[in-house]
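[Help] Beginner question about ligand-bound structures

Sorry if this is basic. My supervisor gave me a protein sequence and a SMILES string for S-adenosylmethionine and asked me to "get the holo structure". I don't really know what that means in practice or what format the answer should be in. Inputs are pasted below exactly as I got them.
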Amino acid sequence: MSVPACPSPDKSIEWEYLWASYDASTYKLVLDQLNSNEIIMDIGAGDLRLARKMAALTRKVYALEINRSILDEGLASSAPLPGNLIPICVDPRAFDFPTGITSGVLLMRHCIHFQLYAEKLRDCGCRRLITNARWGMNVEVIVLNAARIPFEKVELGWYACWCGAVGFKPGLPENITYETEAIIHEVIDCPNCKSSKSLNLKIDAELSL
Ligand SMILES: C[S@@+](CC[C@H](N)C(=O)[O-])C[C@H]1O[C@@H](n2cnc3c(N)ncnc32)[C@H](O)[C@@H]1O
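Answer (accepted):
No worries, everyone starts somewhere. Holo just means with the ligand present. The predicted complex, written as structure tokens, is below.
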């Protein structure tokens, strides 16, 4: 397999650019969320192995992949391409998402453009994002138009931010209960927001987006 050189010397984008498949149980967590009426936007579709499975269960799948050689490998497979699977070799950061998408799928643990993709999906009317980009080892379903509170309003406990960062906001030990541990606060303006914004701007400037 020939893998083209990463377009940027920046380590974080080098990680994001890497191709690797996930295991069957990770794919199952995604597939279990889908229904037959869905129109899916698969961001970073790799060799289409998940996109093909999703196409078998849903109405339509757009599969965006930046790396032509990996996409070509998936297209060269002996299995015919399903009619409802639309592979597109493109940089999704610069791609206009069509309307009608019901769920975005972003299996990309090292994604550094989480917020950009979440905003693009939300702005084209999509309600859900199924992803491992925030927690890394876990697949979550994010309601894109859910209410989000400023980080400073969280007293203590787990949080997941619109910028893609996650963590535990510490507080007084006596205030930690099973209930506080079970809740994940959807937040904005977390401590990571400022630094991740400047990192993304730097990378995008480097790539002249
Ligand atoms: C970890 S792989 C996962 C592939 C696929 N989602 C799967 O689960 O089998 C991430 C993929 O995202 C692609 N990728 C990385 N950055 C991308 C970007 N900005 N736009 C589109 N694809 C990207 C990589 O080329 C790679 O194929």
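A couple of things worth pointing out: The longest strand covers residues 60-65. The mean pLDDT is 89. Feel free to follow up in the thread.
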